[in-house]
Amino acid sequence: MIYSDHIPEEDLALYALRSLAPADAAAQQHLNRCADCRRKLANILGDLSLVSLTVPQEPLPAEARERFMRRLRAESGAKNVETTSPARTQPPARSWNLFGGLGWIAAAAALLLAAYLGNTAHDLREQLDAQRYQVTQLSTQVSRAQQIFDVLNSKTAKRVSLTEVKAAAQPTAHVIYESGKGALIFVASDLRPVKANKTYELWLIPANGQAPIPAGLFRPDVNGTASVVLPPLPTGVDAKAFGVTIENAEGATTPTLPIVMSGQ
Ligand SMILES: [Zn+2]
Prior knowledge:
There is one protein chain. The chain is α+β, with helices and mostly antiparallel strands. It has helices spanning 9-16, 24-33, 35-53, 62-83, 95-100, 103-152, and strands spanning 172-178, 183-189, 198-206, 213-218, 226-229, 239-248, 261-263. The strands form 2 sheets. It has a 4-stranded antiparallel beta sheet with strand order 4-3-6-7, with no helix packed on it. Strands 1-2-5 form a 3-stranded antiparallel beta sheet, with no helix packed on it. Strand 1 and strand 2 form a beta hairpin. Zinc ion is lined by residues 6-7, 30, 34, 36-37.
């Protein structure tokens, strides 16, 4: 078959889509000698390759192509009957003209293809969105773990211990003792109250291992503070430690355990 006419654009599109099988050989012959049609085909193929970049390379479903080719053959037969009618004076249509009137089929095929590609693209987009979401979630978790690690290992971070705000302050006491003079000053704060019939008693525990020496009775005031100033003590007794016990109101000569406060 020889074609003197150019291949109509919609037929070139079908050729590009490999849906023009019956005329492939003829189209190929024309394309071999016609630069114009080759350029148009290249343009169409360029468009198609752009489309194919966005979707996986999957062939048109076989039944869709079959359906299309059946309609093409039916239309082609009808056209042949019409063009060979005696009422017509024009010469019998060349093969390309058979397709010339089929622009609507090409358009329908293009729509079918577009819808097919569109659905595939839509599915792909959904998969991509789901994967992007997972990647975002993962990277958020990694970044959070990194932040935790950084804070825990920071050398410049300030470290502060917090305790219950309303907790009672711990009792504290300080002794200043001059053994050579037997002089002692004792100041305590945040002491817990004692019962009315009880008292705190301060003891000097000698370094030489002798028995503890009573060093004064004291009761905290309403603010929890108390002091013992210059109690009667022997001179020249080195102190190993000091201790506080709770005794009966009149005091004791030997400490009653437990020792509630001590220091050395
Ligand atoms: Zn041509």
